[in-house]
Fold this protein.
Amino acid sequence: MDDIPVEKIIRSRRRSIALVITPDGNLIVRAPLKAPAAMINKFVNEKRSWIQKKFKEIKQRPAATVHEYVEGETFFYLGRAYPLHIVESGNNPIERADRLCVCRTLLPDIRHRLKCWYMQEAQREIYTRCMWFLMTTGYTPESIRITDARQRWGSCTSTGGLNFSWRLIQAPLEIVDYVIVHELVHLRQPDHSKKFWSKVEEIMPDYERRREWLRENERLLRI
Ligand SMILES: [Zn+2]
């Protein structure tokens, strides 16, 4: 596997070897505690074409956006692009109109202030969408929280709580809906088995298209 760089090998009490490609395009191998190096090498070698395909896919994705918080810069909200507009004064320090208007007084702290704003908006929008799906599906989480997660759009805790990254609010509403449905179904089906996906499909027949969008737009998670 000379030409396949392994970033890290994580050993744990597991039975099989698994490969994980991080959003940055690093290969991580998960292996049983006592798996010999030769066995791991062989496994990686056998998966060579899959790994190379994944590496290629990641290279073709748009790079992560690094914001500079300057006039005209694009910010996403529910899938729509809003140019940043610095204003001298306004009714609210941050206001979403045809542009994302931010008062000049916030500039020294703009990164933090915009994040707080996104979190607040995410709380409202995601909560409202959750309520809709709770009513229509009968699934009932213990709690719904908005987090600062950078690695995942949503998660389901072992105690039946749902977490969503505020970064999800950058995505179109139909994508927000998919993540909500995905996590809701985890309340009853914690794995990603066939049974899990068929339950997702029952609620959302076109989920695959939405899932693909998320895969291609992972960079939004890193903002
Ligand atoms: Zn899942």
